[in-house]
Amino acid sequence: MKDSNAIRAMCRLYAAMLYAYPREFRLQYGVEMEQFFHDRCRELARERAGSGAWFRFLRRNTTDWIVSTWRERRASRTSPGIRKLVQEWAVTLLMFLFVTTSMVQAYVVPTGSMENNILVGDHMLVDKVGFENGGNNWASYMLPHREVKRGDIIAFRYPEDVRQTYVKRVIGVPGDQIRLEDKQLIRNGQKLDEPYVRHSSPGLDDYRDNFPTAPEFYTTGRGRDMFAGHVHDGEVIVPPDMYFVLGDNRDNSEDSRYWGFVPNNYLVGKPLLIYWSFDAPTNDYVDWNFRHIEDVALHFFSKTRWDRTLRVPSSQAAQ
Amino acid sequence: MKKQPDLLPLTPPVFHILLALADEERHGYGIMQDVARQTNDALQLGPGTLYGCLKRMLAAGLVEESDERPDLEPIGEQHDERRRYYRMTALGRSTVRAEAGRLAGAVSAAKAKLGLAGGKS
Question: Would an 8 Å CB–CB cutoff place B80 in contact with chain A?
Answer without folding.
Answer: no
